[in-house]
Amino acid sequence: MTFLRQPTRAGVRDAAAKLAAILPPTPLFSREINGVEIAFKSEPLQPMGAFKLRGAWHRLTALSDEARRKGVVAFSSGNHAQGIAWAAKRLGIAATIVMPADAPRAKVEGTLALGAEIVAYDRATESRETIAARLAEARGATLVPSFDDPWIIEGQGSAGVEAAAQMEAAGLGAPAHVVVPCGGGGLAAGIALALKDAAITVVEPEGWDDMRRSLEASWILPVGDSPPPTACDALQTKQVSPLTFDVLSRRDARGVAVSEAETATAQRWAAEQLRLVVEPGGAVALAALLAGKVAPEPGMLVILSGGNVDRAAYARVLAGG
Amino acid sequence: MTFLRQPTRAGVRDAAAKLAAILPPTPLFSREINGVEIAFKSEPLQPMGAFKLRGAWHRLTALSDEARRKGVVAFSSGNHAQGIAWAAKRLGIAATIVMPADAPRAKVEGTLALGAEIVAYDRATESRETIAARLAEARGATLVPSFDDPWIIEGQGSAGVEAAAQMEAAGLGAPAHVVVPCGGGGLAAGIALALKDAAITVVEPEGWDDMRRSLEASWILPVGDSPPPTACDALQTKQVSPLTFDVLSRRDARGVAVSEAETATAQRWAAEQLRLVVEPGGAVALAALLAGKVAPEPGMLVILSGGNVDRAAYARVLAGG
């Protein structure tokens, strides 16, 4: 049993400063939806295509020299893998990633291209947590979870710090309501810490809306035994973390679930209106807005969290609708 | 016969200052190609999805109050139309656009959404120049050409001013070689004026490479009588202008032609590596680089000029390769 420190607002600001030293902020765009100007934070435009390098950078830069020498181990369906690989490469740290054998090809290739070692597992029969923990133990390496970690949460929150400054600069005012995709809740919790006065709505795919149900129940509930298939590979998290849940619960965050069709509509809208490639899991917050499940309001900030699509699947989405 | 003033470097800098006052620079990204860091200027991320609002803004803001009251007329397959409509809407000027009946649906809808009036014509049998000139004469409106105009050329050049500052800030040095899509040559000529020390390569679709042939002949040559079909609707210009040709010729610009397959490969690469939706005509400079027709070199700047795709056609491109 490890006792983890709580993620803090000061930690988020520290992470934002560390990120600002190495990368420009991802662009913020605005578009009118039902006559209201909405801000869109575009994390697909990160070098590795998703917000995940934020937490990875904050975590890996906090490792001791000795820990850096022994390397890091992570498990991920793809974006956290690439975030860790990106940060590890830049810091000269060896990274091993435990990835499902059916992860999108683009995410596997992206991770390999960043120099990480990949260990594949069968999503149906094996536990990635166990495999990763054993690897880390055998090598003395540091296990870097994808959301159940205060540094990771704080790092992801840097997106909120950036967006607030960009909204102010663009004359859109302070963020009043943030709509954010949710898998394990790291991004949502980090942004909630960053933006202490904003309402928070987390969005999940239908059947994977355990954070929504947990927030309503005020208790962590896992996804059901047979969750439906979803194109949102990045959001297939079976249970959220006390760290992310506590932050969101204390902030009275609300959860919304969107259908696969609503997500596809959002991907098409992002391609046509923003000229951005957004992956299914990265488009769910936009989907909630376009589907009318979240009402547009002044000061609304919608997070587009990633753009690492499977090209063939993305082509089918664009051909539809 | 009208005598046009020549576009100037001072005019480009003036245009850049006017643009900077109303819009943030479009992001500049860098990626390694064959071990060389290449800069990509991302004009698909403009509000209307292409660089064309630059020239439109510079031109329309230079109109007298009386000219503004009488409105503007333009002819365009789509991006210039949307650029003019965008600038006109912002300035409260009435805009009429002569567009081919077979223009991509997205470009027609984008233009209408920006409040412009559209007059359709048959690309095969009618002359858009004649229709537009008659409309302008009847209304006393100002005809705004898409490239044969010093303000338009200067305005487009603001992309080069921005990119140079961004490359410097990113540690990529001054632009040494710019690779740029070419229809009528407005963007290429403007950037050549902006970046007086850079080599310039203009890229056109095969069979529409009249600028390439003109530069080699040192004399303006039109496209052939039966140019092949091309997905690059934005680059189907039958003859370049003395204004654009002279600038590029004096700078010893080189021309390169790319195939439809090379362009499609570039669109797929942009989607996967940059998460950007780039239209065929916007991807030809990248295509020349990826096809090895332009060798990567330090200080290289590749312009991605627009992202207003026909969604069905774009889906087919992404499904291929």
Description:
- The structure is a homodimer.
- Chain A is an alpha/beta fold and about 325 residues long.
- Chain A folds into two domains: about 10-50 and about 150-320, Rossmann fold (3-Layer(aba) Sandwich); about 55-145, 3-Layer(aba) Sandwich (Rossmann fold).
- Chain A contains 13 helices and ten strands.
- The first copy, chain A, has helices spanning about 10-20, 55-60, 65-70, 80-90, 105-115, 130-140, 150-170, 185-195, 210-215, 240-250, 260-275, 285-290, 310-320; strands at about 30-35, 35-40, 70-75, 95-100, 115-120, 140-145, 175-180, 200-205, 255-260, 300-305.
- In chain A, the strands form two sheets. A six-stranded mixed beta sheet of chain A has the order 1-2-10-7-8-9. Chain A has a four-stranded parallel beta sheet with strand order 5-4-3-6, sandwiched between helices.
- In chain A, strand 4 (about 95-100), helix 5 and strand 5 form a beta-alpha-beta unit.
- In chain A, helix 1 packs across helix 7 (about 150-170), helix 2 (about 55-60) packs across helix 7 (about 150-170) and helix 4 runs parallel beside helix 5 (about 105-115).
- The longest helix of chain A is centred in the middle third of the chain and has 20 residues, at about 150-170.
- The first copy, chain A, is globular, with a radius of gyration of 18 Å.
- Chain A starts with 8 loop residues before the first helix and ends with a helix.
- The model of chain A has no long low-confidence stretch (mean pLDDT about 95).
- The interface between A and B is medium-sized, with 26 and 25 residues.
